[in-house]
Structure formats: C-alpha cells, structure tokens
User: What shape does this take?
Amino acid sequence: KNSPSRKEGMSEFDEIRLKREGIEIMKKIGSEFKWKLNNTTGVACVYFHRFYMLHSIQEFPCPSTALACLFLAGKSEDTPKKCRDIGNNALRFYSNTFRVSGHQLMDDIFAMERVVLIAMKFEFSIDLPYKFIINYANDFKSNKGYDPNMVSDIVCSAWPLVNDSFFTHLCLAWEPQVLAVSLFWLAIKL
Assistant: This one.
C-alpha cells in the first residue's frame, strides 16, 4: 500500500499487473540465454522488486527496468550477456512494448542500469531460497525414517513455488532461509 507507485495514485491491480509483465519479460529473455530462475533470472527479479520499493512505475516503466535488472544480474552472477543481445531479444519478443531502434534500446538499458545501481546502493549479493531448499532436503535425507524419494518429490514440488514467489515481493519481506522453510513445508502439505 505504501509503494511509490501507489502513492502516486496507481491502483494495486495495475501495479501487480505491470510488475508481473516485467517479471515475465525477464523470465522469457533469461530463458533465451539458458538462465534459470534459480540463479541469474531470480537475482534479476529481486533487483526489480528492490528497485520498485524506492521508485514508481510511473517514473520508470517496468519493461526498461526489467531489462536493466537482467543486464546487471548477468554481471553480478558471472553470466554476463551483451546489452545488444538483451535488447535484440527484447525487440524480437516484445516489439509492441519496445518501440525503439536497437541502438536506442541499448542506450535506454545503459541509462536505466545506472539508476538501478544507485537505487540498490551498489549492493549485489543476493541469496535465493533454492540452495536452502537443497540444504533442508539433504538434512531430511540424512535423518533415518525419511524416504529419499519422498524428499526428492518434495523438492520437486517446492521448486516451482519458489519460482512463483518471484512474482511477489516475498523475496524482500522474508529472508531466503525463511522462504525456503515455508515453501518446503507447503510442498509437504500439497
């Protein structure tokens, strides 16, 4: 309720919808680079949510921010991609969203990168819940009485729950360990 976008009059529905569209852009372009949500693309999603805790969608549209977050996450996760490649994929898949030339889009990504860097105070280190789910699964497997196949099934159920959590701001509200335990427990209950 207190996000900058909401303070500027955007409805909750529109804010959620626009952020989802930004996350979808990152997922689609990230998948083209064979990035997975459990690394570079997931980190980009966290950057994206952190950015919009400080800035409004009205001031900085989600599509451009999404591309800049992907570009930065590629660098921070040692999976860098050229700005040109990110821009070309954006134009290929989202030509109705990005109605500019490739060179203009690259300039926009570079400009937005600086804004995101400043908003994040150059803090790039992000832990995602995935590694903690694996740790918890290994703990369960090492304890007698737990079927390793059942534990593997729980991990397979928890993984998409973590993926879906990136569409929300849960990654900002809770530590990744707490999310991992919660989603592991939810997967057990499913």
User: Anything to note?
Assistant: The domain at 130-189 is CATH 1.10.472.10 (Cyclin A; domain 1). Residues 12-32 form the longest helix (21 residues). Residues 90 and 96 are 10 Å apart (CA to CA). DSSP finds ten helices and no strands in the chain.
